[in-house]
Structure formats: structure tokens, C-alpha cells
Amino acid sequence: MVDRPLTFRYSHHLAGHEQAAACNCKAGVHGASLPLAMSKAAPLEPPYAATLAAIRHGSHLCAFYETEDDLLDLVVPFCAAGSQRGELCVWMMPDHLDEHTAGSSARKTLSEFGTEIYASREFYLQGASFDGGPIVRFWNEKLHQAIATSHSGLRATGDTGWLEQRDWHAFLEYENELNRVIADRPIVVLCTYPFSACKAGDMFEVIRAHRVALAKRQKEWAVIEAPLTDSNADALDISNRVGSLSQREREVLMGVAGGLPGKQIAFNLGISIRTVEVHRARTLRRLGVRTMAEAVRLWTLARR
Hints:
This protein is of the alpha/beta class. 44% of the residues lie in helices and 17% in strands. It has 2 domains: 8-223, P-loop containing nucleotide triphosphate hydrolases (Rossmann fold), CATH 3.40.50.300; 232-302, Orthogonal Bundle (Arc Repressor Mutant, subunit A). The chain has 12 helices and 9 strands. The strands form 2 sheets. Strands 5-4-6-7-3-8-9 form a 7-stranded mixed sheet. A two-stranded antiparallel ribbon has the order 1-2. Helix 5 (132-148) packs parallel to helix 6 (168-182) and helix 9 (247-257) packs across helix 10 (262-269). The chain is globular and about 60 Å long. The termini are far apart.
């Protein structure tokens, strides 16, 4: 995915921008670039960079991912597209990612585009617990730096794999404050959440703190549908849906919710990866959702 060079072409009709960079990030990806009015109803279809380049300044997005490959499949074109748009790009990278071949390749690719890369845990946890104040000051300083160096704005993405339950509420307060900080300013922020981090709190709270939420749907990124409310009727509906899952489907969903990759889930259950994928597809159908992120949220609510 990130082991081969990114190739760019230009589109002339993306969300009010005269030109936006587009890249074929996957083998076999093709099709016209999509106009983007960032709303809950808008699909995110390949080529991803065309869509990501067209995101308006002042936007605050989040994405839920299962694997490191999923993360790189989004972050690499997100930063590359920003670079092509003349933005200063910053990535708070998962600490362990650089140990792997794909992570090293992504780091090299983004560094060539001028992306500044920091270790996420060291960046976000500057003390014994999370404090959003220094982070907000950092973004303000980076924006001033971007403008002073003739960039068109700032594009940042940060990972939350370090997030634990003790820091959940403080971090959500920071996420909500970030909406005010970046409003009407030349900044775009993408916050990435591994499913394992979402065990610390409610995924719904994350979605509400962002303008758009993304997750993988059938190997492509898609906008998550508006979650259910917390009414009694919805709670009963959730319980009935989750109760319709077979024991094996529940085991697979528990593995996904725990942040385990498909290979590890298959090994733990003594089944093939193909069988894991079959159970995942059945789980989505039974729960009536499009993405595993939505499935994990329903599973979490049903267990309360």
C-alpha cells in the first residue's frame, strides 16, 4: 500500500477548490473524483486523496480503524493531499508503528512531502495525565509558523492509541474545545482512534465531538451513519440486535472491540481468517450497520 510511490493527478471540481491532488492509494482503485460537501450523508470513496484534499479549512474529523494498514491507508493520502495543497502537515504517529516495515515506509514517504512527525504518546502526555492546554497552544503556534512560512494553512492528524480511561473525559473536553479553536481558521484536523482506545469510553462521544466520523466499510472508508440515541426504545433495539448474534459472531466482535487484528482473532478462535471475515460480514447484517465501528458501539452499549 505505502511501499510503492504515490501517483498524483488533478481534479477540477472538488468542493469549491479549483484543483485538488488525487492519488491511487490501492491497486485496482479507480473512478472519478467526488465533489465533497462534508456531511453525514457523503460517502468517502477512492481515490481518497481527491476527497481528503477537498476538505474545507476549519474541519475536525475522526476515524476509527482496526489495523495499522487501515491507519496508513488514510493518514498517508491525508497528509500527501495537504502537502499538495500547500499546507504544513503534522502527524502525531503511534509510537510502535515505526518499528514495522509499513510504518517506516510511510514515515519516509511523508517526510519527503515535508510532514513533521512526532511520537503521539510523548506529545499528548507531557505530564502524569493529559492536559489539553499545551496541545492547543502547540496548534496555535504551528498555525502561526505555517502562515509565516507561506503555507496555505495547517493540516494535522493525531493518534489516540495511548488513551486510557483515566484521561478519557479530559481528552473529550479537549476535542470539543478544538472545534472552537480551529473554527474559521485555515486548519484541518483528523483524529484517529484504534478500536482498542475506544474501550476507555463511548464511541458516540467521539463522534459528537467531530464534524465527520469515518470507518472502513468493505475495505473502503465510509462516513459513519448517525448513531442511535440513548432512549429506552433504542436500548431495547440494541439488546435485541446484539442478542441475535451467534456465539462465534460475538467472539469475533469481542476480538475486534479489543483491538485485535483478524489474524490474531483467527488464531485465538482456532479458525481461518476467511471464516473470521464471514462472521464479520454476518455480524454487520444482523446488527443492521455498515461498519465494524458501528458494530463495536452497539456491542459496548448492550453490555452496559
